Amino acid sequence: VTIFYAPEPLPWLVASLSETLIRLRVSPADLTIDKIREAAAPSWACCGESAWRQLDCQPAYSLHDRLRQSVEWYREMKWM
C-alpha cells in the first residue's frame, strides 16, 4: 500500500474538475466535492479494540493486510 500525501487544495481541484467533466458526459463521478468534504472532516478516528474485547473476538487479518489485499484486487480488476 502506498500512501500519497496531497497538498490540501489538490483533492478539491481534482474533484471540481471531475464533477465538471462528468456533467458534460452525463456519467456518475467517482470523486466529488461532497466526498472530499467528507474525507476532510476532522476527527476521523476509530478504534475497534473495545468491541473486540466485548465480543471476545479478534480480526482474522490486520487492517494493513486487508488494505493491501484490496489494492491488489483493484489493480487486478484494472480499477487502479
Strand content: under 5%
Shape: extended
Approximate helicity band: 55-70%
| Major sheet | none
Q: How does the helix and strand content classify structurally? A: mainly alpha
Rounded mean pLDDT score: 83
What is the count of β-strands? Answer: 0
Low-confidence stretches: none
Radius of gyration, in angstroms, nearest whole number: 17 Å
Tally of separate helices: 4
Ends distance: 12 Å
Number of separate domains: 1
Order of helices and strands: HHHH
Question: Main traits of this protein?
Answer:
extended; single chain; mainly alpha; 80 residues; 4 helices
Tell me what you see in this structure:
The protein is 56% helix and 0% strand. The protein has one domain (9-76). It is mostly helical and 80 residues long. The longest helix is centred in the first third of the chain and has 17 residues, at 9-25.
